[in-house]
Amino acid sequence: MIKRTEKKQMKSYLLILLIHVLKIHAQKKYVAGWENSIRTSVKYINRLKDNSIPFDLELADLWEEALIHASIEIDGGCTVNHVESLVDKELIILHCLTLINL
């Protein structure tokens, strides 16, 4: 079973992963710094992962928070609604799950 501190770390890495994948989909570009952050997040998620954690539900729970962070970082800041209109939530969550399970 995963410890509370490990679960908190896991959520943090999942959020970072989700934010960067969201930005890639919204901006239709890939930035090298995001790639490093994604790799690091995936590495630690895989180290901490416990099969009892449903990543799809965790990512869905973090969606709103990720949208807020991404909206601040995209194009010098834009609205959450604008970012949400640019992306497909299910596709982004699937992309994250694919990265975690590689």
Give me a quick take on this structure:
The protein has 102 residues and is mostly helical.
Helix content: over 70%
Question: What spatial form do the alpha-carbon principal axes imply?
Answer: globular
Strand percent estimate = under 5%
Q: What is the gyration radius calculated from CA atoms?
A: 13 Å
Structural class, from helix and strand content? mainly alpha
Distance between the termini: 22 Å
The tally of domains stands at 1
Mean pLDDT: 90
- Give the SSE order as H and E letters: HHHHH
Largest sheet: none
What does this structure look like?
The model has no long low-confidence stretch (mean pLDDT 90). It contains five helices and no strands. The chain is globular and about 35 Å long. It has 102 residues and is mainly alpha-helical. The chain has one domain. Helix content is 77%, strand content 0%. Helix 1 packs across helix 5.
